[in-house]
Amino acid sequence: MERMEPRARSDAYGSRINRSHSPLLANVIPWLSILLGSLLPVFALAAALPMVPPLGFLTLLAWRLVRPGLLPVWAGFPLGLFDDLFSGQPFGFAILLWSMTMLVIEFVELRLPWRAFWQDWFTAGLLVVVYLLAGWLLSGATPTLPALVALIPQLLMSVLMFPIVARIVARFDRLRLMRWKRV
Amino acid sequence: MAPSGTRRSSYSRRAQYNLFTGYIIAGIGALIGAVLLGLSFFQPSFFGGPRSAAQDAVSPATETAATVRTSSKSLWDSISGYYRAGSKNAELKREMELARIRLEEAEAVRQENVRLKGLLDLQDQERTPVAVARLIGSTASSTRRFAYVGAGEDDGVAVGMPVRSPRGVVGRILETGSDSSRVLLLTDSESVLPVRRAGDEVVAFAEGRGDSLLRIKLINLGINPLAVGDLFVTSGAGGYYPPGIAVAIVTELTDDGGVARIVSDPAATDFVAIEPIFEPDAASGATTPVEEELTD
């Protein structure tokens, strides 16, 4: 008897027979993971230096760059609102910066519709640096030079962290489109 | 990954409108953000309500994480304690003997103090903390240095109360929720604390620099009397902190004072005590504008 190619019945998202995507998971996972990213730095040690990368912002960037077209342009507003509750920056900072970021990426994408990961990393790195410097400038306190110097480890860590966050987001994306539902 | 084909909305009117509305909403969102940011610059406590409510909501989770973190840290400490245990033990024994002698001397000084104060009719009140709680979180990714502590209005915590660890000052309460509050740490660049050098009356301000160090600004300028290794304690001026709590040790000298390292690093702190405001009258007087005092 002729054997069927076993992979023909399934793909990376699971079996294709008798299964379908869960609309709830497919819609909720991106938003939930960004909210979780905003929340995680609160759990870190009360260190005397800002050390933890802005995980919520990085996750937003990763979803936007790894999966273009998934998050709407206005996603920066509600997500930034949540981030402002926990970040310690003055209220409104993340709303402004995250909305601007989404718009900026939109315009970058109009120019460069086809990109490799390196360009994405470059874009994300640039945006994170601008974000952290704006955070230093608009922190509600007088911006001081020592505080700027103290920002450098966090800057480096955030830029280097982006590929990892992008991989995690790619994993989440696979989970998002897994065929869970029995048809 | 390249964008999917949905960007080119082709001839579908509905798709075109959707895309356009998205841009409009994003633009309005950014504008609202700018307005809110401006508002919170002029009125930093304006959004304190939603912020502390959000912090209250996550405090059970952060509390658990803090408990696990400190217990794992102490496990590591007890493992590393075995390294060169013999020589450490001998050294500790020597230190212990010296400390016992110093303790007896201190006891004698204390008794003499009590006797002299009795002669002068001065009375010392025992200061009991309002609450003892864990540091349960921090704003680890922001330039501002805030921490969250697991006690709030329900425990009697109020804005302005000093927060201290067994080692020294940690900061003071900035916002209160019902069972968690926000602490302005000493290293935040908005934190200013009146201090004096332990042992004499060299008074100064300790300002946070935002990079885990404090800047000691001497009030009396002239020849800089500081030396590396000087310990600064709270002076009690301003009325918030009781005098004599350790704050920082000078590590570097500058023209108008020095740069100091905090004694009580919040990262190494487990439980903190929230104490009542030292002299509430003085503290409220310090915040009253000059014009109001004149008309009084």
TrEMBL record, chain A:
Annotated transmembrane regions: 24-49, 91-109, 121-139, 145-170
Presence of the UniProt keyword Membrane in the record: yes
Keyword tags: Membrane, Transmembrane, Transmembrane helix
The protein's name: Rod shape-determining protein MreD
Automatic annotation (TrEMBL), chain B:
InterPro entries: Cell/Rod_1, Cell/Rod_MreC_2, MreC, MreC_beta-barrel_core
Keyword Lyase recorded: no
Residue stretches making up the Rod shape-determining protein MreC beta-barrel core domain: 136-268
One Pfam family named in its UniProt record: MreC
Domain of life: Bacteria
Transmembrane segments: 20-42
Keyword Ribosomal protein on entry: no
GO biological process terms held by the UniProt record: regulation of cell shape
GO CC term (a single one): plasma membrane
Annotated keywords: Cell shape, Membrane, Transmembrane, Transmembrane helix
Coiled-coil residue windows: none
Family affiliation: Belongs to the MreC family.
The protein's name in its UniProt record: Cell shape-determining protein MreC
Organism: Qipengyuania nanhaisediminis
